[in-house]
Each structure stands twice: as structure tokens, then as C-alpha cells.
Amino acid sequence: MARKIVVTSGKGGVGKTTVSCNLAVHLAERGKRVIVCDLDFGLNNVDVVLGIEHLAVYDITDAVEGRCRPRQALIKHPRYPTLFALASNRVSERYVSPQAVRLILDSLSPSFDYIVIDSPAGIEEGFHRAAACASEAILVTTPHLSAMRDADRVAGLLKSYRFDRVGLLVNQTRKDLVRKGEVLSPDEIAKALSLPLYASIPEEDKFFLDNISPKSRAYRALSEFVIDLPFREKKRKSV
Ligand SMILES: Nc1ncnc2c1ncn2[C@@H]1O[C@H](COP(=O)(O)OP(=O)(O)OP(=O)(O)O)[C@@H](O)[C@H]1O
Ligand SMILES: [Mg+2]
After folding, report:
1. Do the Cβ atoms of 145 and 35 come closer than 8 Å?
2. Looking at residue 161, which CATH number applies to its domain?
3. What is the whole-number distance in angstroms between the Cα of residue 146 and the centre of ligand 2?
4. How many whole angstroms separate alpha carbon 21 and alpha carbon 24?
5. Nearest alpha-carbon partner for 55 in 77, 22, 36, 23
6. 121 in contact with ligand 1, CB cutoff 6 A
7. Banded pLDDT at 205 (limits 50, 70, 90)
8. pLDDT digits (tens, 9 = 90+) for 133-190
9. E strands, the chain, where?
């Protein structure tokens, strides 16, 4: 069964889609079978960021409403043979229940190692739909005060879901600003939000291809950290 990881945030534009896609690419590079599921309805960012929007035939609503089988709705990435995307519906007005999405993901789960779920920002219906489908969460924030404040609200909400694990990713970090004391360090942010720090991703001037950084050391470390988490927990329990 796949580990289903929702990537969420309070504030918009902090990097959820970038993180979801890069995590998925790096997991696939490590041989894992991965789906990136775009639950940011109406925007379709995941297939654009992965550069495969021209390959999309079906989207998640087609699967939910029975126009295709769940497997048919997956877009296979041409460069990463074990990476697939599930596009969000293009028409945001259509109501899709969390249960319906969960059923689709559950039916795909046995054939995959990871389902990375890109969530919309905020704490409305879309957030709950995405969270309801997941077994783990990664909360993304930037070091900016407004993003951290919103992350704090989401961290509280995440507690009401029975996730196997929840971690923090601090995106767009800048060592120079930490050194000058202008922003908190990733460790300090994690402490303030009472969450384990999974990774910090430096602010980049330029992405390699769209928003994908296949050579990024930070994303490589994140993917290895995520793969390792259950083993580390088991080891801790047996000590
Ligand atoms: N580490 C980074 N360094 C520099 N720019 C970044 C970084 N991560 C993301 N960005 C940029 O920030 C912008 C927002 O990223 P992204 O779309 O992933 O955020 P999001 O949280 O998914 O937004 P939304 O809430 O609208 O869905 C993009 O232009 C992306 O290229
Ligand atoms: Mg997004």
C-alpha cells in the first residue's frame, strides 16, 4: 500500500506544488513508484510544473464520475518511468467529495509506493478534501511571519486528522537573512510550530526545467529522509 502524503500550507504561494513535484521526482529517481495527485481543483498546476500537461487526457473528476478507470486517468511521465500524475479537475465548480477521491486513491494505492497529494492553500473545503485522503502530512511554510502565522493555524487543524506522521518543510530559506537576525532559522521555526523539521529548501534564483530541480541536493535529502522515516521510527521504538 502506498504512503499517502499531503503537502499543505496555510498561506498560498509558499511552494506546495513545487515541493510536491520535486519530492515525487526525487522519490521516482530512487526507484519508487509515485503518483502526484493534484487536489488544487481548477488550477491544474502539477501537470504544468512536471511539463506533461499536453499528455493529460483525463483528470480526477473523470475517474470519480466513471468516465475512465482510475488507472487510465494517470499521466505517465516520459522521463521518469515510475512517476505518474493525476490531474485536478479543470472545472472548479463541480463538487467532488473527499470520500470519492479517497476511493480513487485507495484503488490505486496497492500498485504504488507513494501518493503525494498537492493541496490548495488555506483551510477551506479543498484543504479538508486533501487531508482526508492522506495518511501523512508535510506542512510547508516560508520563514516570513505571515506564512508562519498561517502555518500555525494549519498545524492545529492537522492534529484533528489521525495522521501517521506530520512534518515541517521550510521553503525559500536564506542563510544571510538568518545570520543578520532578520528571520528565524528553520530549526527555530520548527520549534515554534512544535513540528519535526523534515527539510529546509534554500531560495533558488533559477529552476532547471519549469520548477523541477532534478539535481537539487535539498530535494534529494528530503526524499531520502521521507523514505527513511518509518525505519527510523521502528528503530527508535525497538531501543
Ligand atoms: N525554493 C524556492 N526558491 C525560489 N522560488 C521558489 C522556491 N519554491 C517555490 N518557488 C516559487 O514560488 C512560486 C510559488 O510556488 P508554488 O506554486 O509551488 O506554491 P504553492 O504553495 O503551490 O502556491 P498555491 O498556494 O498558489 O498553490 C513559484 O513561482 C515557484 O517557482
Ligand atoms: Mg500550488
Report:
1. no
2. 3.40.50.300
3. 17
4. 5
5. 77
6. yes
7. confident
8. 999 999 999 999 999 999 999 999 999 999 999 999 999 999 999 999 999 999 999 9
9. 3-8, 34-38, 74-76, 83-86, 114-118, 136-141, 165-173, 197-202
- SS3 for 120-185 is CCCCCHHHHHHHHCCCEEEEEECCCHHHHHHHHHHHHHHCCCCCCEEEEEEEEECHHHHHCCCCCC
Q: Residue 177: is it exposed, middle or buried by C-beta count within 10 angstroms (0-12/13-18/19+)? A: middle
Kindly state the percentage of the chain with pLDDT values over 70. Answer: 97
Is residue 208 predicted with pLDDT exceeding 60? no
42 vs 237: which has the higher pLDDT = 237
Which residue shows C-alpha cell 502565522?
A: 149
Stated pTM of the model: 0.96
Pair 79, 52: CB distance under 8 Å:
no
Asked if 158 contacts 139 with a C-beta cutoff of 8 angstroms, the reply is yes
| Residue 218 cell numbers, joined | 535539498
Tell me which of 118, 127, 211 to substitute to probe ligand 1's pocket, judged by most ligand atoms within 8 Å of the beta carbon. 211
Total domains in the chain come to 1
Strands 83-86, 74-76: pairing is: antiparallel
Quote the domain boundaries for residue 202. 3-238
Mean pLDDT of the chain: 93
